[in-house]
UniProtKB/TrEMBL annotation:
GO terms for biological process: proteolysis. Keywords: Hydrolase, Signal. This is Peptidase S9. Residues 441-644 form the Peptidase S9 prolyl oligopeptidase catalytic domain.
Amino acid sequence: MSQFPDIREYVALPRVVSLRLSPDGTRLVSVVQSLNPDRSSYGTALWEIPLDPAAEAYRLTRSAKGEAGAEFTTGGELLFVSRRPDETVKDNDEDVPALWLLPERGEPRRIAARPGGIGGVRAAGGAVIVAANVLPGDAATEEERRKARKDAGVSAILHEQYPIRYWDHDLGPAQTRLLAGSVQGGLDDAADLTPEPGRALDRVSFAVTPDGSSVVTTWLVYLPSGEMRAELAAIDIATGARRTLAASEGHEFGGPVEVSPDGRYVACTRERLGDQELSTALDLWVVDLETGEGRALGGELFPSAVAWAPSSDAIYIAADHLGRRPVFRISLDGDVSRVTEDDGAYQELCPASDGTLYALRSAVDSAPRPVRISPDGSVTDLPSPVPSLDLPGTLTEVSAVAEDGTEIRGWLVVPSEASAENPAPFLLWIHGGPVGSWNDWSWRWNPWLMARSGYAVLLPDPALSTGYGQSMIDRGWGDWGPVTHADLMAITDECLKRPEIDDQRIAAMGGSFGGYMANWVAGHTDRFKAIVTHASLWNLDQFAGTTDASMYWQREFGSPGSARYARLSPHHSLDKISTPMLVIHGDKDYRVPIGEGLRLWWDLQRSGVESKFLYFPDENHWVLKPGNAVAWYETVLAFLAQHVLGAPWETPESLS
């Protein structure tokens, strides 16, 4: 077991991000992210994960451009997407992702390319379906039209409907389309299954029926006044005919989309669209592929991973539950049984025909690793490219009782050296979402790096958190600040009673919704010595019209200018903020646009609040580049050291 690394070593650790099982159940392949030789960016590669726990994982691909989207064909060949150059083409300088095939024995070969690149790929029954980025108009002239725009220096995009961007990228002028080909023929004569789809396939999730005859896909429907919803559609590969499988005025249907091995049913997620009175809800939705008849299964479990049992009579899901993310088995009759009983958070479920389940297991105290889950629920580690780490502290489950009698639970990380004689300074970390849970390893907000620096870290699940039933979400719906703040203070008070924690040297921090709450906390208590707010909402009326998904926001909060905005916007408590604040924001953040960070920073400056602004011109809602991640942690720790530990301010080495 390796000693827990410092920040620079930490960002260099390899990260397992996916898992795929071959149709015959004999091979596991993963996409692994690791630091590139230049140490300023990450790359990806395909790795073989042996089924024998005593063996060693080994790397399958080594291109400088990296590989992603691993997918097995029915025949067991491995498809992947890569920007690697095709050595069989003279003077090839393409830098768009193409589709490659890696046979079980032999070298990779490119089987399909498009001028705008290829994204996702799914294969079954001899059919290969890809999501491609295609300009509207004549496909035969697309390449020269792209070149003409580039040569003319035209980057402008004319929009005629909302939205215009998503997370960190602009939408248009190209459209996502689904193209159908085969391993043998590639996409040279691909059938365009979705000509002129508009923006219907943005954020697409799709699957192919086992016989290769149909594609089942999400399909966005755009409505008046900027509204939209996602439906589920089936497309006949031979004819291109599309029919609606699932649609509802009050719901969206989304991924993951999975077809049963017998080809009879489709499983996906169904999200209830909340409004100012009714909270959002998510359930597992199963549709009869022939009739379109659908039903919800699993009760109040919010599924994140979905996979059919090979027998087609049950579905495995991973769902948040009391600070964990166990695997559940749900029969088509509606019976629900829990498969895993540990503290793990599971994803990438891969069921085998013998009843074994392969998956990625992680937890607050464990980075994602491939595992084998036996029918009896026992879990065995498989060989992994990620080293096991000796954590610099302990993890304890904690709880408190809220004002309304609700139990509020969380995880408490305490550094190894903390004791009653040497109590640790305390950090309250508020999760994003707001519909989410602290139950998993986080590469971006890792509490163990803070424990390594001597801090105890509380990871609470207050109102709006998942895994505690719909009532927990209902408690905070449309009432974000007051209810969530009370929950956070209740569990903070409980933790500060512990002798190994210093109840005077305390700080709070959060990102996204957690950043909103950090701002709310700053305006409603002065008990904390410092507050770090990352990608945070500040002026809700301003935010509502600039975020990339205004329609979702306004369902819960109403039109800008309503009383709910006035009551819940943190900026109205500016005059009560006295706590030093570190504001962090990325310019490419379209979910919480940079205007929120800029306005917050200016308001703090003009009000005389001691503050600093850590600005990332090239980062999005998260901070993903390794060098910037180092700067993020170093700056946060320096700010906390100054205000919590009483050390003099020192500009981090990464920013010098």
